Amino acid sequence: MTDPKDKTTPTVPLEKELQEIMKLVTMFTLLGAALSFLFGRAPGTLPDDIIKELAPSIVVVCGFLISYEFCDVMGVGMAKGRKGILEQSYKDLPAKEDEEVYLRQRVLTNQLEQMPLFIVGTFLCALLVNGKVASILSLVWVVLRRMYASTYKRAGGKKLKQIGLAKFTVPCYFICNTMVMAAGIQAVRGYVR
């Protein structure tokens, strides 16, 4: 909870926050509806060849998972190794984490936080709406997330505002939420047909 006397932490009233969330929900619903109506197959139907429809998205998701493992997960371990952290016991670790290790850990954690929505959204969109569109959107997401990771890892000595991560994360939110909403709308359209 923030202290109302503390002028360093801006507070957003709950009502304003809810209004902003509703604006985003409305926007993602409209984008999802556009995706469903413009590119979706006949509501209530599955692709004739499920493997062929899902294969491009599977390739993209597998590519991201491999890059996540090698670049992000192993990257944290290698940074810890370079800093000698792997040779220390827990009680001997410094109170403040090394900046390179911290930045790599933040990349790893944030990628992990984004994965459920990305993976579920990609496969639902590919299965229920359109496999080609889902694979293209997911490929754009993967490229943006790799750019995000690369930028964040090299941000040593910079303030968060200087790094410029929003140019990668905001489009990724739009992609994932649009795919999820498109799948949900397509499911409703199929159910009520």
From TrEMBL:
Pfam families on file: MAPEG
Segments crossing the lipid bilayer: 21-39, 117-144, 165-188
tRNA processing listed as a keyword: no
Matches recorded under Gene3D superfamilies: Membrane associated eicosanoid/glutathione metabolism-like domain (1.20.120.550)
A Gene Ontology term for the protein's cellular component: membrane
Cellular location(s): Membrane
InterPro entries: MAPEG-like_dom_sf (IPR023352), Membr-assoc_MAPEG (IPR001129)
Taxonomic superkingdom: Eukaryota
Entry keywords, A to Z: Membrane, Transmembrane, Transmembrane helix
Protein name, UniProt field: Uncharacterized protein
Provenance organism: Skeletonema marinoi
